[in-house]
Amino acid sequence: MASPSTPPCAACKFLRRKCLPECVFAAYFPPDQPQRFASVHKIFGAGNVAKLLNELRPNQRQDCVASLAYEADMRLRDPIYGCVGVISVLQHRLRQLRIDLSCAKSELSKYQSITISGAAHGSLAANHL
User: Where does the record locate the signal sequence feature (predicted)?
Assistant: First the structure.
């Protein structure tokens, strides 16, 4: 949607074409984010992305582009697992944190019972004096 005074969107600049007012990429790949489009293009291809965006309702496109950009970035970092690798690591961390939390609660419970029994024992001893 570039006018004569505005630069072409990152997609049109990358593809070396004129950015027309009806450009489907312009709203989602601003000129100051060329790497975002380059990553998406490398993984999904400009034609596939354009087709996908044109099939979506306008209110769904921003989320779609954000997802595509994230997946593309993860695929470039880890070509085998991409986002799935990140999800797997986070699920493992979550399982470990749950185990750690359970252990900490168990440990806290032990200290609380020692404190309670110690306080009860101290009050019994005071009553016998």
Answer: none
Residue 106: inside a domain, yes or no? Answer: yes
- Is 43 within a domain? no
> Is position 109 within any domain?
yes
45: left (phi over 0), alpha (psi -120 to 50) or beta: left
pLDDT at 41 over 90: yes
pLDDT recorded at residue 39: 97
Asked if 36 and 62 count as a contact pair (C-beta separation under 8 A), the reply is no
Domain that residue 100 falls in: 90-122
| Full 3-state SS string of 9-48 | CHHHHHHCCCCCCCCCCCCCCCCCCHHHHHHHHHHHCHHH
The candidate with the shortest Cα–Cα distance to 43, out of 55, 35, 33, is 35
Question: Can you give the pTM of this predicted structure?
Answer: 0.69
CB 87 within 8 A of CB 74: no
Between residues 121 and 84, the one the model is more confident about: 84
The answer to whether position 42 is within a domain reads no
Give the pLDDT confidence score for residue 112 in this predicted structure: 87
